[in-house]
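Quick check before the chapter quiz. The format below is the same one you will see on the exam, so make sure you can read both the input and the output lines.
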Amino acid sequence: MLLHDVLNHAVKLFPNKTATIDGDVEYTYAESGERIRRLAAGLLSLGLKPGDHIAILANNSHRYFETYFVCSVAGMPLAPLNIRLAAHELEFILNDGEIKALILGPEYIPLYEQFREKTPGLKHVIILNAELPGAVDYEGLIASNEPLMGVAREWQETDMLNLCYTGGTTGLPKGVMLSQRAIVSNAQHATMTMSFQERDIWLHVAPMFHLADAWAVYAFAMVGGTHVFNGAFSPQLCLETIEKHKVTKTILVPTMINFLVNFPGLGNYDTSSLDLVLFGASPMPVDRLIAAKNALGPKLCQAYGMTETSPLLTAMHIGWTHYEGDEAKVRRLASCGAGNLRSERAGGGPGDGRGREAGPGGGDHRRGAERHERLLEASRGDCGGAAGRLHAHRRPCNGRRREFHLHRGPGEGHDRLGRRERVLRRGGERPV
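Here is the expected output.
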């Protein structure tokens, strides 16, 4: 199954169902599908060819949703760019990733101006909801082209679909090549793990360039769910959106959750529609989880993954959470759950019960690289290896490292997310 098959499935089964809600703009799955196919035709009309690489640097929106699907229809692998990177890092990515076209949000025009003269391979800039000399208007490109029938290339499941550059330590970002198979199968497993349904409404409030949120683009389309977008996070806007659109599910990082819990006006908003708040990026102390439960209800579950695994590896379930009573069960709130169908649980294999820590300093003293290999079953064999493209000239981190690792408590079937110390020279995006 390929990503454009997911789109075709959604258009066929849920043509009149609301697919996206972005402020006052709403589209059904049929309308979204047509816009995506018009956009694909528009990209080809610029002289881009199937196999060319495109990128997007923008905030969350329905257009980001469309871009994630258009790469499969137009046959052009997509690099979603981290909006927090500096100009020289984006310059490196655009050159290293051989990006031919950039879809650009208006907020990042000043950043683009800093590297535009240093990216000679970038032939086209497609601007979102703004004017920029020399750029092509996104909506104009859709309006001026007829929908592309079929897809522009013959895909293989192992062909690269996304090129995701990750950072977080020192040196330049590394590119992770994710295949059609890795992305689609991970979304399928997430759908089964989370039991998503057509009635569900997902709030894209975490940045969509990050796979921590991006996987929901595909997973919710598989079941005909609705996507709602916040361009950026603020506690008030998030709460207003949840109340207005009766959001049922979302993913946040612990910092966002704390902002919501401590927001003075929290009690004025109806968040009862929420039935699942996934969180990740870092472990969350049990006392903070209990505080969040008291504010939002027993709806929080930790998930864990990595860009290299496209991304989900493990997830907790509401039914496994206990906020009071048996101390051992309450401690399970810190767990990141159990592995999905294609992940191999760290600690010696599924169900071995030995509870070995799989990171450096663990019971079997394995190196971090080997630990990652054990966890990368979800994407092994795709696009030149599970780890994707690793650049030899990237400088290693010479300081202490704070690495996330999975381990299992004695007699438990749940993984726990621990961490080791690391000194970072500049911040980066954490895994799910």
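If your answer matched, good. The radius of gyration is 21 Å.
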